[in-house]
Amino acid sequence: MSKKIKDYVIITIGMFMVAAGLYFFLMPGNLAIGGANGLAIVLNHVFPFLSIGVFMIIINIVLFIVAFLVIGTSFGVKTIYASLGTSFLVLLFEKIIPIHAPLVEDIILQLSFGIFISAIGMGIVFNRNASTGGTDIIAKILNKFWGIDLGKAVLLSDFAITIGAGFAFGPELGMYSLLGVIVNGLVIDSTIEGINLSKQVSIVSKRSEDIKKYIIKDLERGATLYHAEGAYTGDKKQVLVTVVDRKDFIRLKNYINDVDKNAFITVSNVYEVLGDGFKNIGD
């Protein structure tokens, strides 16, 4: 499967999650946690003759024009697909599975399920250099030019929408919406970090040559050798450093255990790796 097809398959999965979280949990409770959907919920309350799905499409059309102009063609094309696709999914749900009341009476349950399903979907989409539209586009601009974490950027751009929800639906729902925005941002960042998580492994072993060959030939990863000296013994040593994904880390650990049970290994989490064998620097 080519990278482009894989990107769109993964974006579609994220898109379905976002639409499901919004439609089945957040929208019935008027929980406007930001984004085009949050603004659409508020606007639908003021102008009920247009559905939330229609408002989402209108808002996204305006904002993805901004994405084309400011962020670039690649991001814009993927965002058109994801944002309009999410909006049309919401419209489809409205037609085939109409919901006239919240699924449950507990607003905390609605908020929790809605946030976790939609925020994980947003994180998946963000990780493919796209957006589900709405204020996510503004968040991507803040991330691109000022380096603000995507989740925190979403929080900033969505704050005004929660204020509008407070005026439209009352302070209680406004406060729940604000809480939702905060949790939403944290879940997005956690999702992206979890998807990109790799392991940086430093190895000191008498069998470093065998381990190096295993990393290069079997794991098809690169490695770096540092020459070091033991502080206590004064012995000359080699420190082998590599970065691998979680699956390959298990394989590497098992191999080291087989060839040198006395090897000294330190492991640290790395949340983004750019370069050969990982993400392109421009992604």
UniProtKB/TrEMBL annotation:
Instruction: Give the UniProt subcellular location, in the record's own words.
Output: Cell membrane
Please provide the record's keywords in A-Z order.
Cell membrane, Membrane, Transmembrane, Transmembrane helix
**Transmembrane stretches, by residue range?**
7-26, 46-72, 79-101, 107-126, 146-169
- Domain DUF2179 residue range list: 221-275
**What GO CC terms are in its UniProt record?**
plasma membrane
Q: How does it sit in the membrane?
A: Multi-pass membrane protein
- Cite the InterPro entries for this sequence: DUF2179 (IPR019264), N-reg_PII/ATP_PRibTrfase_C (IPR015867), UPF0750_membrane (IPR051461), YitT (IPR003740)
**Record-given protein name:** Uncharacterized membrane-anchored protein YitT, contains DUF161 and DUF2179 domains
Organism of origin is Sporanaerobacter acetigenes DSM 13106
